[in-house]
């Protein structure tokens, strides 16, 4: 498995926020990690990406204990985009995207790869703009290009669609779908349950730092489970493979 965790617990400021989580993610699968605010989605993704160290249990990358994999090698195995990130200094867009290739040195086709990644997120026209002079959604698309430019077999992105308009949300989800279809393992934290249901193979539903359900969208997205976890009544409508999640009211 490209990434898995065993009995994973995480503490933040002395409080357990993940409780003995066991999960594994397969190549070719696009998984959405969903759950209410504070459920532990970012904490899980950060721990799987090696940003946070578990209090107990372990993460395995490529079948090995992630804790002993050197950082440079880990960067070649896993590309990660955090929930939010502000540019610390004023790089040009193309240079920021090229940072995603650093784990592979300076490949000869660097410029073409950067252009292709920018094109995938509809941001090629921004290539020479300073990253400090972008709108919120433009900056997010550029950061997504940095995630997509490399060759890591595992992609982890935390709420990648949150700042994007509806066209760019759909375009991005198609891109992640294609990445998974090409054999990558893709893990996304998402709040948009319609996008998760439509594009993802698997859903991991977290609540209170614990996995509550894991499986195909039709199995996890039931009014009963969503009611228990989010405290809302809802309907899922499926039409020609497109899922529509309709929140009805508070329970
Ligand atoms: N930097 C931090 N220091 C201490 N506790 C934190 C920190 N970040 C998150 N937490 C706590 O960890 C728990 C899980 O938070 P996490 O950010 O993983 O949730 P989430 O599911 O990603 O939420 P959201 O949907 O709001 O982004 C919450 O109880 C939160 O208050």
TrEMBL record:
Species classification: Bacteria, Pseudomonadati, Pseudomonadota, Gammaproteobacteria, Cellvibrionales
GO molecular-function term, one example from the UniProt record: ATP binding
Protein's name in the database: ABC transporter ATP-binding protein
Protein species of origin: Microbulbifer halophilus
Keyword NADP: no
UniProt keyword list: ATP-binding, Nucleotide-binding, Translocase, Transport
Keyword Membrane tagged: no
Residue span, ABC transporter domain: 3-233
Function text: Part of the ABC transporter complex HmuTUV involved in hemin import. Responsible for energy coupling to the transport system.
Alphabetized InterPro entries for the sequence: AAA+_ATPase, ABC_transporter-like_ATP-bd, ABC_transporter-like_CS, P-loop_NTPase
């Amino acid at each position: 498995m490209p990434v898995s965790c065993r009995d994973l617990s995480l503490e933040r400021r002395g409080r357990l926020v993940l409780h003995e989580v066991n999960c594994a993610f397969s190549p070719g699968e696009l998984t959405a990690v969903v759950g209410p605010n504070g459920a532990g989605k970012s904490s899980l993704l950060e721990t799987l990406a090696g940003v946070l160290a578990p209090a107990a249990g372990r993460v395995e990358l490529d079948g090995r204990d992630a804790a002993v994999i050197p950082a440079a090698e880990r960067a070649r195995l896993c590309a990660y985009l955090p929930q939010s990130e502000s540019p610390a200094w004023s790089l040009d867009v193309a240079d920021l995207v090229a940072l995603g290739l650093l784990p592979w040195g300076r490949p000869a086709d660097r410029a073409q790869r950067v252009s292709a990644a920018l094109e995938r997120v509809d941001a090629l026209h921004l290539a020479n703009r300073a990253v400090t002079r972008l709108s919120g959604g433009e900056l997010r698309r550029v950061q997504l290009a940095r995630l997509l430019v490399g060759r890591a077999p595992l992609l982890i992105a935390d709420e990648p669609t949150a700042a994007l308009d509806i066209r760019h949300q759909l375009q991005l989800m198609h891109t992640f779908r294609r990445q998974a279809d090409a054999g990558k393992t893709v893990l996304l934290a998402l709040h948009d349950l319609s996008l998760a249901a439509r594009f993802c193979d698997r859903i991991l539903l977290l609540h209170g730092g614990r996995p509550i359900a894991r499986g195909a969208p039709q199995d996890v997205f039931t009014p009963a489970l969503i009611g228990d976890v989010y405290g809302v009544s809802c309907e899922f409508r499926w039409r020609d493979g497109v899922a529509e999640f309709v929140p009805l009211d508070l329970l």
